[in-house]
Records
---
Amino acid sequence: MWNSGSGKRSKGRNSSGHRPPTIDESAAAKMFQEIAEESDPSVAGMEGICNLCEKLDLNAEEDIRVLVLLWKLGSKEKPAQISKQEWMSGCNKLQVDSIDKFQSILPSLDIGFLDRTEFKEFYKFCFKFNLEGTHRTLDKDMIVALMRMVLTGRIAADRLDTFCTFLENQKSYTRITLDQWASFLDFCYECEDLSTYDESTSAWPVLIDEYVDYMEEQQNKK
């Protein structure tokens, strides 16, 4: 809010004149301490994340809201973990500092609330978070499981099912890159009707070309 006559913005207040809500950072830090790794207290790995999920009554392996929460908290420095700095920043952003407050935001973690731009960012995060060690690709079985978890309800069910079946039957692809992962979602948005697909002018990864060929073969068998 601007102070009349001074031309300066008063610090720490919003347009209504009230200070923005704050969290109990010591409480948030204590929560992190409870899930942090013993060998490195500045990081919470999958064991700690799973412990948090138990307290929130979330299935760490199957509930998509776990990934949405980690994405919103700002986990991005390294796969399969969240740093204390990311945690504290995320808690301030989400205004959470207790299990009760975390539970209160669970309904807002439904991916249906994400617009297309947000979802594309989240979709890429899902790939990066699940990387292991120095690998820059994911095993296709992991890809299929992730796609079924993340894309259900966001793209046509038939497209999701046929692409997953295509991947499962593919012997030439054992691992998938981030570019292939991201391109599939863009492809679903931009090419709803496969009959309009022109491989000669396509700029999609070869994986997409081969999926379209696979679908044509399946159609010809009918």
---
Amino acid sequence: MAPPPHLPVQCSKTMTVQGFGSLLGYLPFLLTLLIGGGIVMCYCMAVAYGHVEAAFPYISDTGTFPPESCVFTLFLNCAAVVLLAIFTLKYLHVVQYNRQCSSAVTRINTAALVIGYVAAFGIMVVGAFQETNVLAVHVLGAMMAFIGGTVYMFLIASLGFRRDVNFGVDERGYAKARLFMAFLSAISFIISMTASCVAWYQWVPFDPDSKSKLWNERDKGYNIHLVATAFEWVMALDLLAFLMTFSQELHIIQLQVVLSRLTEFTTGSQDYQRSLLKQIIL
């Protein structure tokens, strides 16, 4: 049967690019390297320039002032891209091994993917909008990242307790650990947010004219501020530890990219082609 007029004819030759199998399992390690390495670098720069106190600053405080803010944004954007890849691969992993699964598993898996994307976008927002420039947007991004990350952890952990879910590997041993990390993230978030609100309410800067630091150890409310920042670091490390548990599962899947070349185009009126394109878009 001849192809419809005015449509591209697909070449019969197909190229398959593969060989990413076991390498996918290293993505969580790459994410840890990007986030951990980036934060440590920004922390050292911020302390060296006198922009933060050495004892447990907010993670985003280490990337508020230049030049460390440039490095902070770069590393967070790279980490967000890797995070999107991990969330997508985990979603496809569950789909691939559970083609006959119940609708409940499908809904949980899809919800986890969407919420994971929201969390990754929140990380980009945190890196792009420093709190000294656009505080409301920065806080919104942080909420998207931490709340989204925590909800994602609970959703993925819940799949490990279902008997109708197959992961291709023995993942049941991770289920309790993942649930524990999800609760740890939730409790840390509540403590951090509560302490942060109290600290800001009590905050009286020791040097009101200082523009080089967000918090000073001699500020009123600094001790409760340390509680908030310490549990924020716990949340970040907890999320990284959670994603590291994906390594074994990602090792057993293989990514294939199929490239098909369009080689011929049939002739036809431009008006018809525009109308056809409009129909396809609509």
---
Amino acid sequence: MSEDEKTIFLKKKAKVDNNTYYFTSYSHYAIHETMLKDTVRTKAYEDAIMKNSATLFKDKVVLDIGCGTGVLSIFAAKAGAKKVIAVDGSEIIREARNIIDANGLSGTITCVRGMIETLLEKEELPLGPGEKVDVIVSEWMGYALFFETMLPSVMKARDAVMDRVGGTMFPNKASIHLEGASDTWLDYWDDVHGIDMTPMKHRIGTELLVEGSVEIVDKENVSTNRVELVGFDLNT
């Protein structure tokens, strides 16, 4: 095997390993329980879908990418979609199928397991000849919006099967905002069991600059106005 062939092989192996790790992590119940119990997130999707049922979902074809337990697919079906395709690359698709059946929606929602890129390449989505998708719904957002890097997969589906005239991504817009906040948690290092450990503050500050940290900030600690850094039209 030449060096070039070895390089290509290792890159392919790393990609497979990354995909395996990613989809395996989404096979565990805990991550789905956490997402479903995020009532702000789940209710926002439910309200947005149901409030747009007449204009965007009734009698439409919907593609749900990364469907998980199938909750967004079920919302779409309840909003009147005539056909919903629920796609997920992890083993949780089996539970999604059973949940959909238990709720009497298996006649509307079809579950498909696989990576969306592969399903598109092999034309394995249950779409008829020339049939397009009216709505692509997905909860692809990660920390700082793009952390999960799932959006490129969703965009490939958009470019391949979404009706470019009347179709839409859902959500169809995304933006990143910035605001400042204060916190006193670093003060812990001023006195640790009677020991001055303030040098740790500099180390923590340096590490946060390169690693970042996800925290919940109380609204009373917000110290600036919020500004939009960048906005995106996901339909284009």
